[in-house]
Amino acid sequence: MVPSRSSRRAHNDHPSRIHPAPGLGDPVTVDTPWTGGIVDRSYFTDDVYAPYREPGNIAVPFWLQPQVYYQGAAWFQREIHVPEDWQDSRVELALERVHWESTVWVDDDRIDSERSLTTAHRFDLGVLSPGTHRLTIRVDNRAVVDVGPNAHSVSDHTQGNWNGVVGALTLTAQPEARISQVRVFPELATRSALVKVDIAAGSRSAGTGRVEVTARCHRATGTAGITDVGPVTAEFEAEYGRDLSERGLTASGAHVDVHLPLGEDAATWDEFDPALYEVTVRLTTEIHGTESRDTVRTTFGLREMSTDGTQVTINGRRTFIRGTLESCVFPLTGYPPTDVGSWREIVATVQAHGLNLLRFHSWCPPEAAFVAADEAGLYLQVEGPIWANQGAAIGEGRPVDVFLAEETRRILREYGNHPSFVMMAHGNEPGGRDVEHLTAWVIGWRAHDPRRLYTTGAGWPAVAENDFDNIPHPRAHRWGEGLQSRLNGRPPETESDYTEWVRDRPVISHEIGQWCAYPDFSEVERYTGLMRPKNFGIFADFLREAGMADQAEEFTRASGRLQTLCYKEDIEAALRTEGFGGFHLLGLSDFPGQGTALVGVLNPFWESKGYCTAEEFSRFCGPTVPLARLPRRIWAADEQITFDVQVAHFGPAPLHAQVRWSLRADDGAPLLDGVVAEQEITVGNGTRLGPVVAPATGLTAPARVTLVVTIADSSGAVHENDWDLWVYPAVDVEPSGLVTTSDVQHAIDRATAGEDVLLELTPDSIGNDIALGFTPVFWNTAWTKGQAPHTLGITHDPTHPVFGAFPSEGHTSWQWWEPLHGARAMLLDGLPGSLRPLVQPIDTWFETRRLGCLVGARLGEGRIVVSSLNLDPGADRLAARQLRASLLAYIGGPAFAPTEAIDAGQLRSLLR
What we know:
Helix content: 10-25%
């Protein structure tokens, strides 16, 4: 790590950024040379996008769009003033975050070029005479190395192809002998730290010196305050300027190891108590009879990352990784913030949702992110700026291989002391999959810096040398599974887990979830900076042209509630897996690129969309989560409800707790309750309690009930989680006096003659290719080339009398699995625009078709309801049976009074 330095800085202003003035650049056109792969090319060819290809009205549907676009070199120039007391000192220029290659001149002399995407660009300007000089910086944002077009470090999918410098811009006068690097290796067993100090000097001469190390411990609010440690000193002799690499030095100069005892009661760092030590290293040297001084400060935590079999440990205690992604999405600026305050807000939001890790997908954040995470006790997985895929590849002798080694070294040097930096991957999902090359990367860098855990790559490959594997297999929906994925293909339960993936080392499942919600168009007003959501404008136009603009908010909320439901089951399945390592969401917040992937319960500004609160999310995602293993979600009223209780407890210590269960009515009123156990709950997720047998509810009307499991520990803390269940009494599924048929002509004849008809269309009678599933869209339909399902759940009016015996909430819930499984969506284009279906599937925003799977209308002298749901009332299909009974009761009752009329041709159009 390159620590902060107590040294002299130039008497010049230090702006927080330099980049071309807003508005400079080229207009966006269909020929803009974007950095980023475009999987769905329909924007360039499909007539529906023709209006958005017109000059002056350019809008792209696949990512956020900058107001102007520039790719190439940008030149920045200013005068600097070198003070008199800098005479004979070498001056260093540091540019904190640059995109991408920088070249520096002083006056007319070219100094050097740098190309790091992860750490500060540093330039030795040499000895400058006192007075005014001209500083020129050229920044080129074109690709220097092919790190992959979709790498989040460079891609227009995320931050955008910005140009310039952000963060700290400093000129520093360097002392004759200086501290070039301080690395702090905590030693948990001895409650100490090994402080490794590298010293550099500019002259070829012998010198002597002394290093003094002190430390100060800062505890979080509410714990013990500040504790001082040290000083510890070490003296040395050095012959500066010689290459001392054969003696283990990282540069020419000297190296000193200082062992720093922290005390028997030294505080450790983790997510529960992030105690930090600030280390001060003072160097005093004498060269040619002249004394030189230098001081640097750095921060570390007394913590040890390791593994215990198949689980990650921190300070010897098992933990469960609950992570999400930060993909360098900052719409207001188009580049990442470098101030700690901005990162504190993101860190606080992540922790409020019960997560304990932030993964930086194919990029490395600035220093401020590490500082904020250190303070709060949030774990970070950092990656090289590499997504060597879609044409790029690792291990084939390309320039990216050398660049990866350079960037890894820079990342570990710059940020390695931060205790929050607990995991590292080379980058994301490598192409080529050169196992040997990436295995060597893990082995080599772990030997160089063993303070964190290493894996070959996020996604793959899984090799024996990994400390942990990031793999995409243990999740509820895997790429290409479509309607055969667990949540789409199997009836709802809460017993499934990933035991088959618990093997010989920790597995942290890669990018679970990816469940989409409909665009929240109210979000558009938040985009007041560089990046604009022109994609949302396209989707809003599609919705308006389809005659459904008034349903935008309804679509967002209904799809969002289904999204939340799916995330809850996905996360709980991981938590139920004893010995499992953890998961990374993709993600808690939306990803606006790759075709627009609205996969978060938060928007790209890390703000709530209004349908899921942090409090709700953290009930099923946190250090201590009660779990219920239920064989099913639907029960008969005369059945006992049976389940097991499991506790996923990864807190700071075991709990002595009472575990209770209760069944509650929809209004919260208690129905049944009981004590499961009162005992110690160890750290881990192996505590299984039960079985619990709840007496039959005896309810005489269909109802949604909520199972709540509560853990109350001896400290007074309470942890709760809940699951919706549905209880149905026996019903008569075939009331007399109604016409039920699957024959379209028969339905037309009977309805035209004045009868009330239920037409139940079979899946093979409907000719469209819309894949209606239970879950919402996975990632998005454009970038997955139409992967099923194509819909975002259903919406309906829960107060409508058709649901009189099927209590529902207006969106997809688990009781809808049976009616939706094997069902088809009907295209309503041929029906009157004013007709709204009783049950309406929400189409993907790229198509925005008017859909229905339950439609009521007048036909001739009679009335008809057309259903494309799966209402087969089989013995084990209690929910389908109940919905069918409710539907038939509605058709046969006084409330059946549809106002819209259709004719036979319009009815037949539903078969398209």
